Fold each of these.
Amino acid sequence: MRRAALVELAIRTASAAVLVPLALVPAWTGGWPLALLLTLAGWRIGYEWFHMQGRRGLAAQIPASGAAAGGLAAYFFAGPAAAVATACLGAVTGRIVREGFTRTLHRGLLGVALLAVPLVLLWELRETGEDGRDLLLWCLLVVWTTDTFAFLCGRVLRGRLLIPAISPAKTWSGLFGGIFAAGVVGGYAGILLGFPAETAVLSAVCVGMATITGDLVMSAVKRTHGCKDTGRLIPGHGGVLDRVDGLLFGVTLVAIWKLIVEGA
């Protein structure tokens, strides 16, 4: 591994040492710590999203605040569907307050809805009791394992680029390394949770694939808007949206799967 890659790995590891406990504790406890974390993360994700749309300073902060505050209030008063709708309404209101009525008022609102859904589903998943807690922690493990081994295998093994038109760094070796590691680590963890071996491994592989898909989708969005990262808040990772893009896809898959199983 080249020196630059080693330096990047060291920075990413140091950031992870701070971020992992910050995510694990609220995920374990649920309740207001998780609600606070999701609200803050939602605000930051919204800010980075609007920043990508070309808005700067208050022009990004105010609609992000409207989306986060509106979504949070609506959830506890009217439920998950209202939270997503009100997040969009809050973003529109924030834009009107800052910019007045413009022809580009709708720009980026679809992204607000698509980003709000996984955050709501994450909360819904955790609120289903101990099973939801265990599934959320398992999902975090699989997503982090996929990200870590995709990075390591991509940097060490290199090889052919995955989709160079979207991402100039992601490789096939990183893809297969990440998914293989997800199947091994997530499969073993799933067996410990009581899943049949085949179900545990297959589920982990699916979440690993969702994680990489989320990363690629966000890479395509960033390429469309001409930026490498969504922010600079997290050393070695970029913005919060850069860090959670795979998780948003992974937790959506797990939450929907649990809803289907419970409804069957």
Amino acid sequence: MKFINEDTINRFSEHISTVFGVGYTAYAPGTMGSLFGLLIYMFLKDGSLALYVTVVVVLFVVGVFVSDVMEQIYGIKDPSFVIIDEVVGMMICFIAVPYTPLLAILGFLLFRIIDISKVPPLNILERIGGGFGIMIDDAVGGLIVNIILQVLSK
């Protein structure tokens, strides 16, 4: 008996990639994904850096897989309801950044601006396609914001 079949993989991918349906919100799904990433950060910020980075890496790898499945199912390049990329990008913003409410708000706003505007190299990275292409532009956007926050927190 097979426990993991195509339907199971598709349902798992849909749940994770849309963050349990949050991506289907009619208004600003990317912003909702970013808020969800900020919420995860708030829960993990007082834990160890190793745990936080592990969660980010696992979510990135899983995100590549589930995003790729969703592109294949729907035949849409980077579907707007796939928001796991925003969750991971937002979490990358805060790796090793000391917590203050101001930096949390600033990180959120900067990430949304960079993600929406697709500044170089993000505009090039999003052309890669597939699950990796969906995830990498937001990961690099999060890295850009992380560098800015690191400088501002000194």
